[in-house]
Amino acid sequence: MRRIRAALLAFAVVPLFIAAPGEARAESILGAMSQAYDNNPDLNAARAGLRATDEGVAIAKSGYRPTIGAQLDYTATQTNPDVATDDGVDAALGVSINQTLFDGFQTRNAVLGAQSDVFAGQEQLRDTEQEILLSAVQAFMNVVRDRQIVQIRRQNLDFLNEQLNAAQARFDVGEGTRTDVSQARAQLAASEAGLVAASAQLKSSEAVYFQIVGNAPPSSLTPSSASSQLLPNSLESAITIGLAEHPLVKSSQYAMNAADFAVKEAEGSLLPGVTVSGSFGRDLQTGGTQATVGAQLSVPIYQGGAASARVRQSKELLGQARINVDVARNTLREAIVTSWTQLEASRAAISANRAQLDASNLALSGVIEERDVGQRTTLDVLNAQQDVLNARETLVQSERDSIVASYAVLSTTGRLLVNRLGLQVAEYRPEVHYEAVKDKWYGLRTIDGR
What is the SS3 string spanning 310-368? Predict the structure, then answer.
């Protein structure tokens, strides 16, 4: 019976967050977030999309600038030789320039709208960064949880092997029954199946980790809870901070501004426009030159109703954008309340599950002793041991939930950001690319040389 009690003791006191066997390289939860920030393809794609949005400002500003073109005309003429006509070659080279002086403020509002689109995109990128960092936390903690469960079920398998051997030994000396042996063997088989399922779940979690973080999880993972300095003091404080700081709300506000400028741009098509143009041409045959300068005032009178329809359409889109600001706030409020209550529930569950585990361990020890004196059966021991197994796995799950919920609170309040977390990475600054391209007049290469 000493071997059984030794196995029980080992099963009861193995600490949480067990490191998997293998190499000694360890990874912290902040390290996993740093790697996801650098490597995640979804995040890199979002950054590339924002760089494309930046170019919208340069495109809109082109309305302020002149357009210049060159033209070469070449004509060769040959007629019937029986008819007296002049045959020959005519060639002319010309250059023209056009400049808009006034377009009903359409270019001005297009530029302001494009700038608002960029600022909205920057906030959307920050929201995407938070989503990726939270996904990295979830993937990290899922691997930690699943490794613990695999280890727990391996220990459970060892314990059941001891129970089966003990039941067989008692049956051999006539102190037990064949039923005891069969029950122990059935529980052992179920435990083996459970270990296989846990191992499969671990492999799935490791695959998700690789997808999000960019490499396979190392052998040792060292989780830590979110910094208490970043967590709000209360639910009301979390809601206030989130509504003021979260990128989702800021992005919707910038999108509303862009829709407002779109209305003004559409209204500008109903106003007069003024353009000036000039051209210079030279006849390459005679050497003669011609230069012209002109101005044009255009006053729209009726455009088939298209301009009016575009104004009405843009106003409806502005109304939608205003509603979306309220939608974003309500969505965020619900997310904050959900994450906060999950954090409180998981913290309470940890205390309850630890008490349950202690009680289950004591009950298992007592049932084994009672079984040894003939007051309990092997089935009673197996049932008590299953209670211990369930309590241990429930505790592991609640510890995982607590850590993930703490980072979810940071995400919903807009604080799950690189600079606030102190991640050891080179922070991506989207405004650098924007400043580099917003006033660019010419150039086919991107900022990184492509």
Answer: HHHHHHHHHHHHHHHHHHHHHHHHHHHHHHHHHHHHHHHHHHHHHHHHHHHHHHHHHHH
d(CA 109, CA 273): 15
Give pLDDT tens digits for 221-252: 887 777 777 899 999 999 999 999 999 999 99
CA distances 50 to 5, 42, 46, 428, 433, Å, are: 62, 13, 6, 12, 9
What confidence tens digit (pLDDT) does each residue in 244-303 have?
999 999 999 999 999 999 999 999 999 999 999 998 888 877 778 888 999 999 999 988
Q: What homologous superfamily is domain 2-437 in, according to CATH? A: Outer membrane efflux proteins (OEP) (1.20.1600.10)
Confidence category of residue 367, pLDDT binned at 50, 70, 90: confident
Identify whether the C-beta of residue 99 lies closer than 8 Å to the C-beta of residue 264: no
pLDDT, tens digit, 9 for 90 and up, residues 328-360: 999 999 999 999 999 999 999 999 999 999 998
Full-model pTM: 0.84
CB under 8 Å, gap of 24 or more: what pairs does 433-438 form?
433/50, 433/51, 433/54, 434/54, 434/57, 434/118, 434/122, 437/54, 437/55, 437/57, 437/58, 438/54, 438/57, 438/58, 438/61
Domain limits, the chain = 2-437
